[in-house]
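Need the bound structure for fe (ii) ion, inputs here:
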Amino acid sequence: MARSLPKYTVPSLSPEEGAKLAEILQQRLNALNDLALTLKHIHWNVVGPHFIAVHEMIDPQVDAVRLMVDAIAERIATLGVAPVGTPGALVKARTWDDYSIGRDSAIAHLGALDEVYVGVITDHRQAAKDTEELDDVTNDLLIGHLHELELFHWFVRAHLESAGGALSTGSADGEKASADAARAKDKASA
Ligand SMILES: [Fe+2]
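Answer from helper R.:
Posting the output first, comments after.
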C-alpha cells in the first residue's frame, strides 16, 4: 500500500525522505514486535534440564526488545507518519513464517532462536545501511539496537558452541533444521 506523504517531518528532511525512513522503520517495528512475541513463546514452551536458565535468560531480552519497538514507533511518529502496531497488519506485512516450534527442549529452542536472530539482525543491519546517508538519528537508533541484539544473539549461541568454538547448528538452514542440528549434537555429546 502506497503511503501518503507526511504533512511534516523532522527539520532538514523532505516529506519524501521522512516517508522513506518511516517505511524502513515500519518493517523493523514489525520484525521486533514479532521477535518480542516469539521470545515470550519460547519462555513459556521451553522444557527439560536447562529450563530455568533459558526461561530466565529470555525475559530481559523481551523487555529490551519491547523498548526498541517503542523507540522505533515513536521515531516513525516523530517523522510525521502513523506507526502501525496492530497484529493483523504485522502478519499481513511480514515476509517470514511464524515460529514453528512448540513445547521442546532448551537446546532445540536455542537452535531455532539462533536462526531467528540471524534473520532479524541481518535485516536490521540492512535497514541501518539504508538509513546511513539519509538520517543520522534514525541510523543511530538502529545501530544502538544492533549492539543489544547481537549481544543477545551471542547469549543464545554460547549455548550452542563447543569448546573448539564451533556452533552445533553448523550450516543448518532454517529454524527447524537448526533446532534438529542443535538437538542431535546435544544428544551425541550427552
Ligand atoms: Fe514469565
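Comments: The pocket of fe (ii) ion is lined by residues 43 (CB under 6 Å). Strands lie at 46-47, 104-105.
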